[in-house]
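Inverse folding, one chain.
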């Protein structure tokens, strides 16, 4: 366990970017804002749907809103003076550096495996000096003892590395929340 009595003094001066505002991104963002993070950059093009409410940090009256706008509303309710920049855009290889180039750490919180793959590849190519916290394997429920953290240089991956989302193994709030909070915890460790 890493402990730093000065973490509360460090966090207000740090910037974290999150690519994706779904189950991982919205819950990770909430955990980071609750800890006192200084600046948060959020990018996602999607809108809140009813099916998101089982695991994402949104509410029924936000259905139809852009996720980053709804998440901004929710995070500001936690910390009214938080510095949060929102970008209601699809993250692409072309805009990745302009969105996240000034971050101390970036969190990958994308939905699909192919998005995750190109994002990790482009982050390590375009912004290799910025630590990247990603997720892999968080579908279903149970088997929490299989969830782990794997470190490979500036890439840190949270999850079981195996369980893919499917109709038989949908993403559900408990495991998604565990992995999202693991990502937030690794971010705090990296910012320390």
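Residues assigned per position:
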């Amino acid at each position: 366990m890493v402990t730093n009595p000065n973490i509360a003094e460090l966090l207000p001066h740090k910037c974290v970017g999150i690519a994706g505002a779904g189950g991982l991104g919205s819950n990770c963002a909430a955990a980071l804002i609750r800890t006192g993070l200084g600046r948060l950059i959020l990018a996602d093009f999607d809108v809140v749907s009813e099916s998101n409410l089982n695991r994402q940090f949104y509410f029924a009256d936000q259905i139809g809103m852009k996720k980053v706008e709804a998440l901004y509303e929710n995070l500001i309710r936690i910390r009214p003076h938080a510095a949060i920049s929102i970008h209601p855009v699809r993250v692409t290889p072309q805009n990745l550096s302009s969105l996240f180039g000034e971050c101390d750490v970036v969190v990958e919180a994308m939905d699909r495996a192919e998005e995750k793959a190109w994002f990790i590849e482009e982050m390590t190519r375009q912004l290799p000096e910025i630590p990247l916290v990603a997720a892999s394997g968080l579908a279903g429920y149970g088997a929490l003892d299989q969830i782990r953290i794997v470190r490979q240089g500036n890439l840190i991956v949270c999850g079981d590395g195996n369980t893919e989302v499917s109709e038989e193994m949908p993403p559900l709030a408990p495991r998604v929340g565990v992995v999202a909070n693991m990502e937030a915890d690794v971010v705090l460790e990296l910012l320390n």
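The mean pLDDT is 94. Residues 9-191 form a domain with the Rossmann fold fold (CATH 3.40.50.720).
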